[in-house]
Design a protein that fits this description.
101 residues; DNA Binding (I), subunit A; 2 strands; flat
Length: 101
């Protein structure tokens, strides 16, 4: 359940999404995807299968900066949605246990 009340305006969201689109075209992003690893589950994925994820989502006040953007597999990105890292720890712990067993 999400108790966060967003104070981010539609204009701010549009601005940050445009910054993310611009970052997606950079060599920095291409190098991140070339590592072929999801930031969250650490599973291998082809560069074209990785999506751009904001660790702190834009709608939660996150910015489109290099220290807030990571490559994520589609499954993790869809599961995380607008969660903050602390809210998503249970899912990540579950992934770690699955990888150990």
């Amino acid at each position: 359940m999400d108790y966060f009340i967003s104070t981010v305006t539609d204009q701010e969201i549009r601005k940050e999404k445009q910054k993310a689109r611009n970052l997606r075209k950079t060599q920095w992003w291409k190098q991140k995807c070339a590592e072929e690893t999801c930031y969250y589950c650490r599973r291998k994925a082809l560069p074209g299968e990785l999506t751009m994820d904001h660790i702190v989502p834009i709608v939660r006040g996150g910015k489109s900066t290099k220290n807030n953007i990571v490559p994520a597999c589609k499954k993790c990105n869809n599961e995380k949605k607008h969660s903050l890292p602390i809210e998503w720890e249970g899912y990540l712990e579950h992934l770690k246990k699955d990888n150990i067993d």
